[in-house]
# Entry
Amino acid sequence: MNDPGFTAVANIRLLPGRPNGFMSVVRSSVISRFNEFFEWFGTLGIFSWRVIKAAVTPPYEWRELIRQLDEVGSKSLPLVALAGSAIGVVISLEARYSLSRFGAKSMFPATLVYSVVQVMGPVITGLVVSGRVGAGIGAELASMKVTEQIDAIEASAVNPYRFLAATRILACILMLPLLTLAADACGLLTGWFAQAMVEPLSFHQFIESGFSGATFNAFLPPTFKTTVYGLIIGLIACFEGMRTSGGAAGVGRAATNSVVLASLFLILADVVLVKFILVFFP
Amino acid sequence: MAITYDSAIKQPSLKQDGSVPVVAVESVHKTFGTHRVLNGISLSVSPGETLAVLGRSGTGKSVLLRLIIGLVDPDSGSVRIQGQDIAGLALDQLGEIRKTMGFLFQHAALYDSLTVAENVAFPLTHHRREMSKSERDDWVGQLLAEVGLERGDLEKMPSDISGGMQKRVGLARALALEPNILLLDEPTAGLDPISSGEINELILKLQRERQMASIVVTHDLHSARTIADRLALLSEGSVAIEGTFKDLQRSDLGFVKKFLELS
# Structure
């Protein structure tokens, strides 16, 4: 913004002798949005570098990491299990209807298993955790920022990037695959139950049929891609929280931005990750 | 002897009594956006000395403390702690210097997810890992007793205690690592006169017992007179006058007279 060339371009008149106030406003608004967009990524990059440096140098914050594993993992489990269960029922109902139309009811177990484990389980888990954990981390760190608690941590010669950010991000990375497995299990269980209520199907038969022909590539890569989701959720929530300003309004903005941006990037990352998995784990 | 500064005068490296300052701020400038907060400020503090920094709201007193603890970098000039310039140091290197300093924030800045005892123990759990739990608990108990809190307060949360008690807990936390330098940002702000007096007495007692160099930022002249060896009055981002309270009273500067008259 201080580049004289930039300023000169921004002040060019479109028509000689005529004021171009409206166009000038539109142009400067668009330019400032672009600047904010790239500035956000640049600042996120600097923040990420500081967190990585702090995370790999001792002393390590094991106690805080364990506390965060509990916060992110065990306290999200009921919500994730409920979401997974609901998804299992929904897919079961939809799949039964669609497969019946094409005379492929025998494919039901495999359809449910692959749908839950490969697609819906990871994404739903990621979005639920983004909402619960992302908002929680964003609001907590933002509140600490506006009440000078983060400054107090730094003044106590404790690295806030290590103590606050690295522990939370690592907890998200480690817990997302486990939560995804829990969501998958609940989804398969309730999906089977919903089907069994209509047509007799033993659980043993369901599992045997659903997992027949299953390979490593079908199940583990989609589950472990959620480590990337965890990285996105933790990184964005910590970033938004620790850069907050503006009192209570700032805390609200940080919580909202954490959820919205984490969810958005999670979905965009899924596009890339699915392609990656299809290429490298065919 | 009162010392009056203009922006051209540089703070001498040695104090007039020949001692080396533990804190030396030299010609520091700091601007936020278009607002110049500090305009070539220079001051220093010797071991065992207490300096009170006074001034109107918005004259950069709190920014000065944040510069000294390294939460903010100066635009120009230097901040030396025990001879070392802290500007531009990496976070972990700065951490080693911060372990020799204690900071009491204006609103105490207690960690609201931790109890009173856990707040005070926070620096110890990170920097005195060789201490056993019982040693740490004993030390925390001693610190809280020193600042006038009882054992029954240990398990309370910060939201359950009064503003005055929060300041005491904040002070105990600042003293946990036995610092050489103590920075206090408006220690009596928001407190009633009786609580303010108690905090002043507490700070005096701690100074007598521990002989720390202290910088107290305050707009409370009575508090400054009670606890400080020297006073520095800021105006327009630099030190307008520095000396004892009597030196300030003898000053002919209109701003100083008005400040003393209205305090």
Summary: The mean pLDDT of chain B is 87.
